[in-house]
Amino acid sequence: MAAFYSFLAVLALIVIPWLGVGMGMGALFGIVLPYIAIIIFMVGFTMRIVDWAKSPVPFCIPTTGGQQKSLPWIKNSPWDNPYDKKGVFMRMVLEVLCFRSLFRNTSVKLQQEGPKVGYSSEKSLWLFALIFHYCFLLILVRHLRFFMAPVPYPVHIAEFMDSILQIGLPVMYQSDVLILVGLGFLLARRVFDGKVRYISLMQDYFPLLLLLGIVVTGVWMRYVVKVDVIAVKELAMGIVTLHPHMPKAAIDPSVYAHLTLVCALFIYFPFSKLMHMGGVFLSPTRVVPNMSRRAMWVNPWNDPSIKPHSYAAYEDDFREKMIEAGLPVDKKA
Amino acid sequence: MLKLVDHLVLEQQAVLDAWFDLILGTYSENTAVLWKKRDDPFANPVRHRFEAGMRGIVVGLGTCGQTPDVATFGPYLDEIVRVRAIQDFTPSQATAFIFLLKKAVRETLWDKIVEHELYIELLALESAIDVLALFAMDIYCQCREKLAALRIDQIKKQYDRLLKRANLVCDLSAEGGEEK
Amino acid sequence: MAKYPPPEELIKINYTTPVKSWMDTKTAFKPGNFSYPGKPEILKYLGMPNPRVWSPTDDDWQLPPDWQRIVMEKFREKLKKYRSFKIFMDVCVRCGACADKCHFFIGGGDPKNMPVLRAELLRSIYRGEFSAAAKVLGKLAGARKLEEDVIKEWFLYFYQCTECRRCSLFCPYGIDTAEITMMARELLHEVGCNINWILEPAANCNRTGNHLGIQPHAYKDMMDFLCDDIEEITGKRIRPNVNKKGCEILFITPSGDIFADPGIYTYMGYLILFEHLGLDVTWSTYASEGGNFGLFTSDKMMKKLNAKMYAEAERLGAKWILGGECGHMWRVINQYMSTMNGPADFLETPVSPITGTKFDAAAGTKMLHIAEFTADLIKHGKLNLDPSRNDNFKTTFHDSCNPARGMGLFEEPRYVLKNVCRYFYEMPENTIREQTFCCGGGAGLNNEEFTETRLRGGLPRGNAVKYVRDRHGVNNLACVCAIDRATLPPLCDYWAPGVGVSGLHELVGNAIILDGEKKRTTDLRQNPLPGMEDEEE
C-alpha cells in the first residue's frame, strides 16, 4: 500500500509538469520551482544540521569495534576503536566512503558444510548500496557541465571515465545502468524480502521511486528523445547566473518532468531520512573517540547537585554492626 | 525393488526442504525469511539446529526398521524440540512439527508411492513418525522441567550462601558424612 | 496427485501469524516473557513516580491521569538533552542491516525484537507527535498516537533489550539501540512502569553499597568465609583490608561475586592475587558494588550510584582505584564516570606498584581494569604461575558485551587466560570480540521470571559454546562479567550441557603459587586437581 501510494506520488510529479508545460507553464516548472527547491533545500538542510550540531553530546559513547589502546605491547585497532581525532577521521572515512559497518558481516565457513555460493544478503546490501551511492555521486558531478562554463576539467574526466566502454550513440554512461541496477535492487529488497517489507514505510519507498523516476526520465531524455542539450544548458546557466530566462529553442517536456522530480527530491530531502547524509557525520557512536577514561569528557547539563548516599549516613545506619564486625568507623558510637 | 524408506533416503533433500518450509510456516512471515537464509550456523543457529536434527531424523527413518528407538532419534529430536520448547509455543504446537514430516513425505514421494504401490510401507513409516511424536513430547517435557529447575536454582543460588552464613541452615557437607 | 486424508492428522494448529502491520499486532504478556514490575515501596524509597501494585497482565495499568502529557514532556526533554537520541530518531533508513543481529530475534523470531523495529516503537510516536506531515499520513508514514497499548508495547520490548549494542556495530549510522532503550525506559519511569529486578538492586546499592542489601558486617563475614576456604585449599590465611584508610589502592568489584556461585571463586582469585603481590589494597563495604544498576534506570541514578566510588576513594585516601571483572560497571567507568563525577583530581594516574607501569589509558578516571593490571604483571614475569593446575579446564572465552563494544577490552583477558590455562580455544569469530553475543541477562534482565525468554536470546551464544564443546571438548566458559557468571551457567546447562562458567581471576587464583602454601590438592571449587583425584579420599 505504502509502495503504491509512493508510486502514484512520483507518477503525479511526472505527469503534472508534462501537462503543465504543454499549457505554457514552462517558466513555472523551469525557473520558479527550481529556485523554490534550492532555497528550501539549502535552508532546510542547514537548519537540520545546525539543530543536530547544537544538541549536546553529554556522554562519550562510541561503539568500539576493536581492541582499545591500553598497554604498549598490545596491538590496538586505531580505526575501529579510535582513541584520538586522527583515528576518528579514518573511522569516518571508512564508514562514509566504504560503508565499513555494512561490510562488517563476516561469515565463517565450516569444514563439515558443503561449498557455499554467492553473497550473503548483508554483503549484497553493502554492494548495491555502494553502487547506488557512487553512481549517484558520479552523475551529480557529470551534471555540473550544465551549470558551469567553461566546464571544469574533473567533470570532463568523470564523463570520460563513465563512458569509457563506448557503447551506443549517444555514448552510454555506465553509471546510468549501474544506478538502475542499484536502485532496482534496493527497491526489490523492500518489496520481496518479507523482513525488510515488514519494516518499510512510505518514506522508504518514496525516495527510491523518486530517484528511479529521475533516472528513468534522464535516460529517456538522453537516449530516446535526445533533447536539445544546448537549450537545456541555456536554461540551467540562466538559473545559476541569476538571470533566469526561457531558452528560445523548445525543450522537450520530459526535461521539465526530470527537473520537477529533482526539485521534489531537493524539497523532500531536509525533511526525510535522506538526511542520513548529514547525520552520519554527527552520530555520537561513530564520530567520538574512545577517550573518556583517558581524559575528561564534559557534559554541558551535568547536574552537580546529585550526590551519592553519603558514607556518613551509611555509617550511621550500620555503625554498631560495623564495630562489632571489627570494621573501622569514622565516628565512635 | 526400492522400498519407500530407500526413496526417502535418496530424495532426502527434497523431503527436507518441504518439511523445513512447513515448519517455517509455523512462524511469522518475516521470521521465516530470516531463518530460511542459508547463513553460517553461528549467525543463524535456529536453521542450523533444525537442519541437523531434521536430516538425522529422515536418514534415521531410512535405517531404523519397524520401530524407532530413543537412543537414535533422541539427540536429533532434541536439536529441534529444545529450541521450540522456549519459543512461546503451547506443548502441542511445539511438538507438532513432527507430523508435518508426514505431509512432506506424502507431497514429495506421492508419485513414487503410487507408481510402486508402497501404501503399506507408507502406513508403517507414518506409524514410525507417530512414535517420534511421543519421543518429542518426552523431550519437550524434559526441556520444560529443565527450565523450571533452572529458575529454582537461580533463586536458590541467590540466597543459599546467605542462609548458610546466617547459620539458618545446617551445612552437612562441612561436617563430613555420618558413615565415616 | 491423488487425494488422501490430511497427514497432519488431527492437529489443526493455527500458526500462521496474520500478515498485518506491526502496529496492529497487540502485545501479549505471557509468563516468561516479562519481568515483574517494581514494588511500590521500592519506588517510594527511590522517589519515583506512580508507585502502585500492578501486573503487566492487568488490563488497566493504572497510569497517572495525564500520562500522555508526562511522557511527551519527557520525550521532548530527552531530545533536547541528547544529540544521539535526536539523530537516532531521524536518520534511520530502515535498511535492515541490524535486523538479524539481535540475539532475542535470532533465537525467538519475534519481529519486534529486530533492533530497527524496537526503535520504530519509539520513532512512530516521535513522528506522530512531532512531524506534521507524518501526522496527516498516519500509519503509511509510520506514525501513530500515544495510547495505552503503546506503553504496554514499550514495556515489553524495551525490557527485552539487553543494551548489548551488537546492532549498533552493524548500523551504517551507528544507531545504538542501547541508547534508545535507555531513553524509552526513562519515559516509562515517568508513568511508573518499570521492573523490580532493576529498582530493588538500585535501591540496595544506594543504601548498603551492594545490590542484595547485604549489611557491612555480613559482607565482612562472607569475606572471612571465603578466606576460610582459601586457607583450607592453600594452607595460607589471608587477612584482607576492609574500609582501611591510607592504602594505595581501593579495589571495587561487583557484589554478586561475594556470595553467588561461581562468582565467589573469582572473588577468591582476587584475594589470592593481592596476597601473592603483597598489594597495599583495601576493599570497601560502602562502595562494595561495582556494577551500576543506574545504567538501566536513568542517568541520574547512574550518576548517584557511581559517585560512591570516588567518594570512597577520597575518604580512604587511596591513590587510584582498581576495578574487578564486570560488564556494565566497565561501560560506566569507561564512558560515563569521569563525565558524571570527575575530574577526580585527588587521585593519581594508576601505576602498578609491582612493575612500575604507568597506565595512561586510565589517566582520566584513575581507574584500572584488573585484566589490564594482571596482564601487565604476567608480561613482566611477576606472577609465580602453575597453569597445569587448570588442566581440568578446557576453556573458551566469552567477551562480555560492554567491555567489548563499550571499551574494547579483548586482548588483555586473552593474554591472561593463555598464561594461566594450557587449553584455550576460541569460539567462531563472528560470535566473539566486537561481534560477541549477549548472555541474554544484561541491562537488568537477569531475573528468574524472565528465564524462558533469556534462554531464547541465549541460543546464539549457547550454539557457539556447543560448537567448541563438541569440537574441542571445551568444558569451561571464562568471562569477565558478574552478570555473565550468573546468566551463563543456566544458559550452558540448557544449550551446551557439560560446560561450566568461571571468571578470569578464578583461573588466575588456581594457577598462582603463593609463597609458603601447602601442596594444593584441589582447585578453588574444591574439586581435585589433575592427578590428585586419589588424595582427596
From TrEMBL, chain A:
Record's bilayer topology term: Multi-pass membrane protein
* Molecular function GO terms recorded: electron transfer activity; heme binding; nitrate reductase activity
Q: Does the keyword Transmembrane apply?
A: yes
- NarG-like domain residues: 94-277
Q: Where in the cell is it found?
A: Cell membrane
Chief location = membrane
Q: Which Pfam family, just one, is annotated for this protein? A: Nitrate_red_gam
- Which keywords label this protein? Cell membrane, Electron transport, Membrane, Oxidoreductase, Transmembrane, Transmembrane helix, Transport
Q: Name one GO cellular component term.
A: plasma membrane
**What GO terms in the biological process aspect are recorded for it?**
anaerobic electron transport chain
Q: Which residues cross the membrane?
A: 27-45, 125-144, 164-187, 208-225, 255-271
NCBIfam families found in the cross-reference section: cytob_DsrM
Q: What is this protein called?
A: Nitrate reductase gamma subunit
Tell me the organism.
Solidesulfovibrio magneticus str. Maddingley MBC34
TrEMBL record, chain B:
Q: What is this protein called?
A: RsbT co-antagonist protein RsbRD N-terminal domain-containing protein
- Residue ranges occupied by any RsbT co-antagonist protein RsbRD N-terminal domain in the UniProt entry: 14-152
Automatic annotation (TrEMBL), chain C:
- Gene3D superfamilies cross-referenced by the UniProt entry: Alpha-helical ferredoxin (1.10.1060.10)
Keyword Ribosomal protein assigned? no
Query: SUPFAM superfamilies under this entry?
Result: alpha-helical ferredoxin
In this chain the 4Fe-4S ferredoxin-type domain maps to 152-181
Q: Which GO terms describe its molecular function?
A: 4 iron, 4 sulfur cluster binding; metal ion binding; oxidoreductase activity
InterPro entries xrefs: 4Fe4S_Fe-S-bd, 4Fe4S_Fe_S_CS, Cys_rich_dom, Helical_ferredxn
Q: Which Pfam families does this one have?
A: CCG (PF02754), Fer4_8 (PF13183)
What's in the keyword line of the UniProt record? 4Fe-4S, Electron transport, Iron, Iron-sulfur, Metal-binding, Transport
| Keyword Iron in record | yes
Recorded hits in PANTHER family, A to Z, give:
FUMARATE REDUCTASE IRON-SULFUR SUBUNIT (PTHR43551), HETERODISULFIDE REDUCTASE (PTHR43551:SF1)
Q: What is this protein called?
A: Fe-S oxidoreductase
| Species for this entry | Solidesulfovibrio magneticus str. Maddingley MBC34
